[in-house]
Amino acid sequence: MNCKTINEQIRIIDYLAQKNIYSISSKQNVFWFLSPFRNEKTASFKVDNSTNRFYDFGEGIGGTLIDLISKLENISVKEIIKKFNHNTFSFQKQNEFFIERNIKENQTKNEYEILKLKEISSFPLIQYLEERKLHIEIVNRYCKEIHYKLNGKYYYAIAFPNIQNGYEIRNKYVKMCLVKKDISLIENNQSQLKIFESWSDFISYIFLFPNQEFQNDFLILNSIALLRKKSELINNYEKIETYFDHDTAGKSATNFLETELKPKVKDDSEFYKNFKDLNEFIIDLKG
User: Fold this and answer.
1) Distance between CA 156 and CA 149 in Å, rounded?
2) Is 12 helix (H, G, I), strand (E, B) or coil?
3) Which domains are seen in the chain, by residue range?
């Protein structure tokens, strides 16, 4: 690799994430950080993700990823290139976006293109899961690392599939759906169904109760708004347990099911009653 390929293939925000430096605000592909060069309370370090360049208003300097690494780590350009060529930098290099484009499906008006699905291995995604206290081995059983092109730019994220061959997309900066929004149903040929609002709550539950993983079917709504449309499917089960958020929407969803399906339904969210959702409970539990 040379300076040009490093600057083109690796995002500054991914390099910063590898060093546990995250933006405190963003708008239209511009990310603002507290400067990594000094202590400050007001963000003055800007990264334009569309050009992959930074500017530090406090220092009055800016430039490429190479410029940033050189100043922040106090090493020469020659040494930076040597580290990359010997794979001694630990974060995932973005050149994966430009190879193995072996999955191209479900394109809509050429706005996006799915390039690749693989086991989760990129450092920023692993770090995101660690922050959410989501066990990587469990996540890899149900999710993939997705590489996709959106409006001419390349991205990667964690992808959780739904029944329409769509994907819930998550990373530090993105929360969206590709292809089509719908529920996810994990079937183990059981008569008991456990329902969650999000995949992160489902993963949290499997971490807490690993012996339950294949003793139930699991419905992940991906949006609480989909619940009423799936009541017929839910009614096929003999026993239904809910693990919704402790907010107005979650309470309304529980009341709806209890009213519609009566004795079949049990609200099983009591054990995380002091937290908004099951994943928040896990984050607190694991410290």
Assistant:
1) 9
2) helix
3) 3-85 (3.90.580.10), 94-178 (no CATH), 184-285 (3.40.1360.10)
The two three-digit tokens of residue 168, written as one number: 């819930």
Instruction: Name residue 167's amino acid.
Output: Y
Element (H, E) at 53: strand 53-56
Could you count the other beta carbons within 10 Å of the beta carbon of residue 35?
17
Numbers of helices and strands, H then E, in the chain? 10, 15
Per-residue pLDDT of the chain (287 residues; tens, 9 = 90+): 688 888 887 889 888 877 768 788 878 788 898 899 988 888 899 999 889 999 999 888 999 999 999 999 899 998 888 877 765 554 444 333 322 333 333 333 446 788 889 999 998 999 999 999 999 999 999 999 999 888 777 889 999 999 988 999 999 888 888 888 899 999 999 999 999 999 999 999 999 999 999 999 999 999 888 998 898 999 999 999 999 999 888 889 999 998 988 899 999 999 999 999 999 999 998 87
Buried (b) or exposed (e) across 166-185, using 16+ Cβ within 10 A? bbbbbbebeeebbbeebbbe
User: What HEC string does 103-157 produce?
Assistant: CCCCCCCCCEEEEEEECCCCHHHHHHHHHCCCCHHHHHHHCEEEEEEECCEEEEE
Say if residues 157 and 171 touch (Cβ distance below 8 Å).
yes
Burial class (CB in 10 A: 0-12, 13-18, 19+), 42: exposed
